[in-house]
TrEMBL record:
Fe cation binds at residues 129, 134, 219. It comes from Flagellimonas pelagia. Belongs to the biopterin-dependent aromatic amino acid hydroxylase family. One of its GO terms (biological process) is aromatic amino acid metabolic process. Keywords: Iron, Metal-binding, Monooxygenase, Oxidoreductase. InterPro entries: ArAA_hydroxylase (IPR001273), ArAA_hydroxylase_sf (IPR036951), Aro-AA_hydroxylase_C_sf (IPR036329), Aromatic-AA_hydroxylase_C (IPR019774). Residues 1-340 form the Biopterin-dependent aromatic amino acid hydroxylase family profile domain. Its cofactor is Fe(2+). GO terms for molecular function: iron ion binding; oxidoreductase activity, acting on paired donors, with incorporation or reduction of molecular oxygen, reduced pteridine as one donor, and incorporation of one atom of oxygen. This is Aromatic amino acid hydroxylase.
C-alpha cells in the first residue's frame, strides 16, 4: 500500500485508491521548505486581515505548520477529528474522480510543490494550494458539508468527449510549466492549444458547468458583501499574488448565483471577476438549484442524449427503479420521449445500486436494448399492473405474446419469467424466441438468445458512472504523462545544500555553520537567488548584526535592479523579517 490508511480512507472504493500515491516526504528539498515557509508566513500575515475567519482557525485545527511542509500522515491524525482525511496524488486527476473523493470526505492533495520561480502562482495543483488552501477551510462544518455534497452531486455530472481532451491539455500544461527548463515556446504552444479547445467546446456539458461552479466557489470564492468581501477559495488563499490583486477595484465583484455555472474561467490568467456568497449555507442552496437542472434528477430523453455524447460509462434509472449501466450508443425517440435505448459493450442491470443476479457485464457483454414507455392503447403501464392485470393482458409465464409500445416498438416472443422489485413491481421480463422491431427494422432476433426487456414507462435519472461500482472494472486509470522529475545539476544540489545549512541553523540542529560564508558563496555563485539572502537577513536581524544586515540588503537591492519582477517579493520578505522581530 502506497499510503497509511485510516477508517475514512478504508471506505474508499478500489477505483479511487488507484489515484493515490505516496507523499515521499524525503523528496522535499530545503528550497521546497523555504518556498513553503515564505508563502505561508506571507499568507498568514496578509490573510489574517482579508480571509474568512475560518481560515486562521482552520490552520490550527488541521495542524498545518507555517515553518514546514505538512506530512500527510500527521495531517490525517488531526483531520480525522473533523471527519476528513487527505491523500496524495500526482497533479490533476479527472474531475469526476476528484469530486468523488470529496463525496467520501477525502481531500485530494497534489504532493509536489511549486518551483521558486513560480512562488506566487502556478497552474499546477500543489501542496501549497491544496494543503494551505483547501484544508484549513474544511474545519468550518457548514463549508465541509458543502464540499462533501458538491462531490456527491459533481461525480454524477455527465461529461462530453471534449471535456476529457481539455483535461489532458490542462494537465499537460501544468506539468511542463512546473518542469524546470521547459522552453517558453513549448509553454506558449500548450496555452494556445487550451485556448483553442476552450473556444471550440460547443454546448457545455454538465461537468463543464459544475466545474465552473467549483472554480468560482471552492477555488476562487469570496464571502460576505460585494463591498467588503473576505477570501475563502483555495486558489486565492494559496496565491500570494492573486490574494492581494483580488481585493483591488480592478477585480469586479458579483453576487454569487447560478450564473456562475455559465461563467467560464481561464486557468492560465488572473481572474477578472469573482463571485461573492453572503454565507456558506447559500453555496449549498445554489448547488441544489443547479442539481435540479442535471440529468441525475431530470432523466428523460435529454439525459440519455447526454450519456450518448459522453461516450463513457453511464447509468439510466427507469421509473421502476431498474438501473441500466453501460456505454449508451443509441436512442429511438417519439414525441420528444425515448421509446428504445441501446448500449454497446459490457452492460449491467441493477436495482438500488446493487447488481441483479444473472445480469452482470459477462451476461450482457455485447450490450443491452429495451423499449421504454407504455403499451399502445392501454392506459395502465406494465409496472402498475397487478397480478390480475398482467394475466388479463397475457403478460404471464409461458404465454406467447406480441407487445406493441407507443411509438411503434414491437416485442414478440414467449415469456419465460419476470423479475420484481421490493415493492412488487415487475422490473424485467425475460423472453425466448423473441423478435424486437421498430418500423420494420430488426432490433433483436431469436438467434441472439434470450431477450431481457426492461420495464419502465420513463427514464427518471441519467448520470455518470455505474449504478453498482462492483459491476465494472474501473481500475483502468492510465496517466498520459506524469510529473517530470528532471535530474538535478551539481550546482542545483550545491544550492540545496546551502539552503539546508541555513534551515538547520534556524532550527537549532546545527549552529556551527558560518552564515557569512554561506552568504558570500550565494552572492558570487548564485547571484540571482533572492530567497536564501532574505532568510539570512532574518537571522541577521534576530542576532542584531547590523553590518551583516546592511551587506545583505545591498545585495538584495542589486538583485531587484537586475530582476525587477522579484522586487516586491524581496520587499515583502524583508517586511516579514522586520515584523517578526517586533512581534
Amino acid at each position: 500500500m502506497s499510503y497509511e490508511s485510516n477508517p475514512i480512507l478504508d471506505k474508499l472504493p478500489k477505483h479511487l485508491k488507484q489515484f493515490i500515491k505516496p507523499q515521499n516526504y524525503e523528496d522535499y528539498t530545503a528550497i521546497d521548505q523555504a518556498v513553503w515557509r515564505y508563502v505561508m508566513r506571507k499568507n498568514v500575515d496578509y490573510l489574517s486581515q482579508v480571509a474568512h475567519s475560518s481560515y486562521v482557525d482552520g490552520l490550527k485545527k488541521t495542524g498545518i505548520s507555517i515553518d514546514q511542509i505538512p506530512n500527510m500522515y500527521g495531517m490525517n491524525r488531526i483531520l480525522k477529528e473533523i471527519g476528513w482525511a487527505a491523500v496524495a496524488v500526482d497533479g490533476f486527476i479527472p474531475p469526476s474522480a476528484f469530486m468523488e473523493f470529496q463525496a467520501y470526505n477525502v481531500l485530494v492533495i497534489a504532493s509536489d510543490i511549486r518551483q521558486l520561480e513560480n512562488i506566487e502562482y502556478t497552474p499546477a495543483p500543489d501542496i501549497i494550494h491544496e494543503g494551505a488552501g483547501h484544508a484549513p477551510i474544511i474545519a468550518n462544518p457548514e463549508y465541509a458539508e458543502y464540499l462533501r455534497r458538491f462531490g456527491e452531486i459533481g461525480c454524477k455530472a455527465i461529461s462530453s468527449a471534449k471535456d476529457y481532451e481539455l483535461y489532458d491539455a490542462v494537465r499537460h500544461l501544468s506539468i511542463i510549466k512546473e518542469a524546470h527548463g521547459t522552453p517558453q515556446e513549448e509553454i506558449d504552444k500548450a496555452e494556445k492549444h487550451i485556448e483553442y479547445l476552450q473556444e471550440n467546446m460547443g454546448e457545455p456539458s454538465e461537468m463543464a458547468l459544475i466545474r465552473n461552479l467549483h472554480w468560482w466557489t471552492v477555488e476562487y470564492g469570496l464571502i460576505g458583501t460585494v463591498e467588503h468581501p473576505k477570501i475563502y477559495g483555495a486558489g486565492l488563499l494559496s496565491s500570494i499574488g492573486e490574494s492581494a490583486w483580488c481585493m483591488t477595484d480592478q477585480v469586479k465583484k458579483i453576487p454569487y448565483s447560478n450564473e456562475a455555472a455559465h461563467t467560464e474561467f481561464d486557468i492560465t490568467k488572473p481572474q477578472p471577476q469573482l463571485f461573492v456568497t453572503p454565507d456558506f449555507a447559500f453555496l449549498s442552496q445554489v448547488l441544489e438549484d443547479f442539481a435540479n437542472t442535471m440529468a441525475v434528477r431530470k432523466g428523460g430523453l435529454l439525459g440519455i442524449k447526454k450519456l450518448i455524447t459522453s461516450q463513457a460509462l453511464g447509468t439510466i434509472e427507469l421509473s421502476t427503479g431498474l438501473q441500466i449501466s453501460g456505454e449508451f450508443h443509441n436512442v429511438i425517440e417519439h414525441d420528444g420521449k425515448p421509446i428504445y435505448i441501446q448500449t454497446k459493450g459490457p452492460t449491467a442491470l441493477a436495482y438500488r445500486e446493487k447488481e441483479l443476479v444473472g445480469h452482470s457485464t459477462a451476461y450482457h457483454a455485447e450490450g443491452f436494448g429495451s423499449p421504454i414507455g407504455k403499451l399502445k392503447g392501454i392506459n395502465i403501464a406494465i409496472e402498475d399492473m397487478g397480478p390480475r392485470d398482467l394475466k388479463a393482458y397475457k403478460i404471464y409465464e409461458g404465454e406467447q405474446i406480441s407487445l406493441e409500445f407507443e411509438g411503434g416498438i414491437k416485442v414478440e416472443g414467449t415469456i419465460i419469467t419476470g423479475t420484481r422489485n421490493l415493492m412488487g413491481k415487475i422490473i424485467l421480463i425475460t423472453f425466448k424466441d423473441c423478435t424486437v422491431t421498430h418500423e420494420g427494422k430488426i432490433l433483436f432476433q431469436p438467434e441472439w438468445g434470450l431477450y431481457d426487456m426492461a420495464v419502465g414507462q420513463s427514464v427518471v435519472s441519467a448520470y455518470n458512472g455505474p449504478a453498482d461500482l462492483n459491476s465494472f472494472d474501473l481500475i483502468t486509470h492510465q496517466l498520459t504523462e506524469t510529473t517530470i522529475k528532471q535530474k538535478k545539476s551539481a550546482k542545483r544540489l550545491q544550492l540545496e545544500q546551502y539552503y539546508q545549512q541555513v534551515r538547520d541553523f534556524r532550527e537549532g540542529t546545527n549552529t556551527t555553520i558560518s552564515r557569512n560564508k554561506v552568504f558570500q558563496v550565494i552572492k558570487s555563485e548564485f547571484p540571482e537567488d533572492w530567497l536564501l539572502p532574505v532568510e539570512l537577513y532574518e537571522l541577521a536581524k534576530q542576532s542584531n548584526d547590523h553590518h551583516f544586515q546592511k551587506e545583505i540588503l545591498d545585495h538584495l537591492e542589486s538583485i531587484k535592479r537586475n530582476n525587477p519582477k522579484v522586487g516586491h517579493l524581496i520587499d515583502d520578505g524583508i517586511k516579514l523579517a522586520d515584523a517578526s522581530l517586533v512581534s
